[in-house]
Amino acid sequence: MENNIVLEARSICKSFHDPVKIDVLKDVSFKLSRGEYASIIGRSGSGKSTLLYILSTMDTDYTGELFIDNVSIRNKSEKELAAIRNEKIGFVFQFHYLLNEFTALKNVMLPGFKLNKLSEAELEHNAYEFLKDLGIEKLAHKMAYQLSGGEKQRVAIARAMINDPLIIMCDEPTGNLDSKNADIVFNIFKELTETFNKTLLVVTHDLDFAHKTERIIELDDGRIVGD
Amino acid sequence: MKVKHITEIAIALMLARWKQTLVAAIGVTFSIAFFISLLGFMEGLNELLDGMVLNRTPHVRLYNDILPSKLQPIDLSKEYKNHHNFISSVKPTNTRKEIYNAQQIINQLNKDERVIGVAPKITAQVFYNLGNIDLNGIINGVDTEKEAKLFSFSDYVIDGDYKELKIIPNSIILGKGAADIMMAKIGDIITVTSTEGEQFSLKVIGFFQSGIADIDKVQSYASLSTTQKILGENSNYISDIQIKLKDIDQAPALAREYGNFFKIDAEDIQTANAQFETGSSVRSIISYAVGITLLIVSGFGIYNILNMLIYEKMDTIAILKATGFAGADVKKIFITISMSIGIAGALAGLLFGFLLSLIIDAIPFHTSSLPTVTTYPINYGIQYYSIAAIFALATTYLAGWLPARKASKVDPVLIIRGK
Ligand SMILES: Nc1ncnc2c1ncn2[C@@H]1O[C@H](COP(=O)(O)OP(=O)(O)O)[C@@H](O)[C@H]1O
Ligand SMILES: [Mg+2]
């Protein structure tokens, strides 16, 4: 197996039984290599989010195989999956989802607490550096709820970066932002792939955004129709 | 995952709902404080009531019971050895209430290591003469010093000096009830008639109040020699030997041993006062039931706040899980919250329980039947504090465990998709 493959999906199928059986994902297979900047597009309801939840190991109710860093995640316990998410996957949601009880800086540091590899001081330093890279170091000590949408999304990106993951997944990260903030986020992602050699998988329905990425995976009705 | 960081997250979540958290902690504080003061008060009362009887009762009493002989002449007959016999209306005869060789028995008992002290006693049946009327009375002849030392005699002498009993010949300490009926004052001379019909004049030097009205109406105290004189007996006459033991629980065994050894009747305190134990334990059980109910109710308080917190912080839980926190970590966070509420509440509760006990202890409480008691009785036993603390922590843990388990099972996909 090639060593620079960070994520591989092999004929992933998923259905909901609510109330009748609907196949949401049908035989989805693709590979992502290190440093790739890929987007998943498709109309609303085509199964993009569902796919991303499976790829991020949060959803385990599917058939098919998923390899992350060349390791199958079948038969892994809830605890092991959590550890994989913590160490290898950074996740950015459409709704910036920060913990309102903490400052921006603490929000970024939280996944690092779980990983427990760096001291708190080192972690704080790294978190601060990421915020600085994203141009929001001034907000480090503000509480999360005091930030604007664009600022929150940048904090969320810093949080996704803190444990130096293999791959960053985003579900419509610009869906809630105006075009100016969307551009900022896009450029940040681009920089992540170029300077940090991160792998990015971004779900979006913003075609402009998608066309600027290196690779577009198109989903329609649960099937990959274009790559 | 470091404990410090689990705690940090737990504290942040608690602060988000600090009022409810505080209320839950106050619930624990309240229940522990009441548990401690209630049980302390109840045990104090138990000790007081038991003390009314047990302090003054010998652990083992040696005496000669007036009973028909166990061996009737026919039992001694060889001829009818293998027969059954029925004799009705057997009467005791020739029984001496006097304990034979009493002084030697006392000396022997004083050497016994299991014995704290021994006090001789005589009881004399008399009539208090009140004009034309005769009142039933019992005069207890006691060794005042030993009686005071072993059976708190001095606590119950409410007027006068009990030591004068030995110094002033023909003196008496009257039961308060009897004195009230006779309208006797200290220094008065009263007359009593012995069962032999002889009259004696006795000087009242004090009053005695046991707390049990029926006793105080009848019983009085005099010195051994005065009582011997009333009975018309010599100075060796002793009818009861009262023994106080180091370990009250050994009383039944020792009563049997002494009974056999000295060939005498022996009664232990447990047989004589079985009903007091029952009363105490029923009171204890009721207080424990009330106290533990309080603690359980406070557990529900914690359960509620945690459930609420979890519903409110679903998003937080989902993000934590999405960013790699395992169910076990989430569980730890919520158990930490509930244990913090429990521990903080418990510590405050222990303190307030102690303060509440001090307050109860200071409330004046006077009752004519308990001359030595001036405030409500409280027991400060460490066991109530430990039981309260342990039980509170256990309920807190359980109350936290159920919601925490629920939180650990939250499916982040459902929450994130639901936005
Ligand atoms: N819990 C669920 N039960 C039943 N159907 C669901 C559930 N979640 C999603 N779906 C359905 O699955 C399909 C794909 O949803 P989703 O992955 O969110 O699409 P997208 O993100 O591409 O808009 C939709 O038709 C949606 O209605
Ligand atoms: Mg979607």
In short:
With 227 residues, chain A is of the alpha/beta class. Chain A is built from 7 helices and 10 strands. At the A-B interface, helix 2 and helix 3 of A face helix 1, helix 14, helix 15 and helix 17 of B.
Describe it:
The complex is a heterodimer of chains A (227) and B (419). Chain A has 227 residues and is α/β, with parallel strands linked by helices. Chain A has a single domain, classed as Rossmann fold. Helix content of chain A is 36%, strand content 28%. In chain A, the strands form 2 sheets. Chain A has a 6-stranded mixed beta sheet with strand order 6-7-8-3-9-10, with helices on both faces. In chain A, strands 2-1-4-5 form a 4-stranded antiparallel beta sheet, covered by helices on one side. In chain A, a hairpin with a 2-residue loop joins strand 9 (215-220) and strand 10. The two termini of chain A are 21 Å apart. In chain A, 45% of the residues are buried. Chain B is of the alpha+beta class. Chain B has 2 domains: 3-54 and 276-418, no CATH class; 60-84 and 93-267, no CATH class. Chain B is built from 17 helices and 10 strands. In chain B, strands 1, 2, 3, 4, 5, 6, 7, 8, 9 and 10 form a 10-stranded mixed beta sheet that branches. In chain B, helix 13 (274-312) packs parallel to helix 16 and helix 14 (314-322) crosses helix 17 (412-418). Chain B is elongated. At the A-B interface, helix 2 and helix 3 of A face helix 1, helix 14, helix 15 and helix 17 of B. The structure holds adenosine-5'-diphosphate and magnesium ion. Chain A: Keywords: ATP-binding, Nucleotide-binding, Translocase, Transport. Chain A: It comes from Aequorivita antarctica. Chain A: One of its GO terms (molecular function) is ATP hydrolysis activity. Chain A: Residues 7-225 form the ABC transporter domain. Chain A: This is ABC transporter ATP-binding protein. Chain B: Keywords: Cell membrane, Membrane, Transmembrane, Transmembrane helix.
